[in-house]
Amino acid sequence: MSKQKPSIPKGTRDFGPAEMAKRHFILDTIKKVYQKYGYAPIETPAMENLSVLQGKYGDEGDQLLFKILNSGDFLSKTQESDLKDSKLLQPKISEKGLRYDLTVPFARYVVMNQHNLSFPFKRYQIQPVWRADRPQKGRYREFYQCDADAIGTDSMLCEAEIVLMIQEVFKLLQTKKPDSLEYAIKINNRKILSGIVEVMGAAGKETDFAVAIDKLDKIGEEKVKEELIERGFEQSAIDTLSPLFSLSGSNKDQLAFLKDFLSNSELGQKGLAELNEVFDILDSFGANVPELELDVTLARGLSYYTGAIFEVKPQNVKMGSICGGGRYDGLTDTFGLPDVSGVGISFGVDRIYDVLDELELYPENSESSTQVLIVSFDDESWKYSLKVLQRLRNANIKAELYPEPVKLKKQMKYANDKQIPYVILVGSEEVKTGQLTFKNMQDGTQDNLNLDSILKHF
């Protein structure tokens, strides 16, 4: 058999122990904040029926679904004519796909388990998702999402708490160097966007408008206007948008302008009222969120959003959005459960990982899980070390014994390579006296201590 050079699919990554320690720092931080705000964990399968996934993300999203071929002779149900039309072929050879996000599977879960859940139901979910996208910096084909959703309530308290959770997560991720990550929490409301489309005289073209305007920060104002023309908007309608592209000032100033701009749109006014309520609740909390910015051009491409939408972007690192979400009112409708409103947020772990790496924000001790290594000099001291090891572990100290009493240099190199902060050296003298050599690997100091004294260091 010829040797094969190992590789992994484009847009995926391996993570070794050092990387996983950093990832767990991110995941554990987010998880603790979610739990603090009353969210409980669930998990759903990696694959879903395509009937669940398709039609929920808009045309562009549907094209990025990874589809799974049916097992067995998957071509047996097809005819030659099917090969000429992919729309006819696909349902016959593929019935399942990898999940594109965690929100649609969550909506499916809620409908299937509605009689066992207490509403409003608040869940968090931390699992990988897959998108057949073109890989580039910060964009992967397999990546983790950390979602929190509250479903079964239309209270704007949920939106306000999402803002507070975002702020708290990013504060906790910067404990090593406070305020070194500059970021903005962008907020808007899809009803406001629908109101803008009404003012443009293009009612019914909300989706086309949202898809185009969502690309503003990537392609710029002129290209967005060109795309709107391509999508059938009149030049006179596009000219109406001009004041919005240059809209600035405080959140209060922008809301006041929009109230006048959307005066003839009932739906737009409702969106403004919802945003005002979010800001009022945050004021009642006594919260200071200088990162929160109203951005009337924020659209978020996913078609299921119906109310408030959020996006977080770093300001001092070149990276796309690292967090996003919004309110959706009709997502469970397609699964047979109407009139259930939900709102959620998702942290992009893989992008946050890269941002923290670039800014060197990981805590010093994130590299190693082992706190102390026991180094032995001979067979007798190795056997004695087993009892020491057991005492350490019984005290919930993460400890290792080097598997064999090889040369001291090799064992100490192992401790250095794994960045283990402490080493206990055990030789014949230590076995005889019970006084163990306890070395601090960071500053090089060492003491002869009994095991009880060593335990007090942790």
From TrEMBL:
L-histidine binds at D101, L102, T103, R131, Q145, D149, R300, Y304, Y305. It comes from Marivirga arenosa. Residues 1-403 form the Aminoacyl-transfer RNA synthetases class-II family profile domain. This is Histidine--tRNA ligase. Homodimer. Belongs to the class-II aminoacyl-tRNA synthetase family. Keywords: Aminoacyl-tRNA synthetase, ATP-binding, Cytoplasm, Ligase, Nucleotide-binding, Protein biosynthesis. Its EC number is 6.1.1.21.
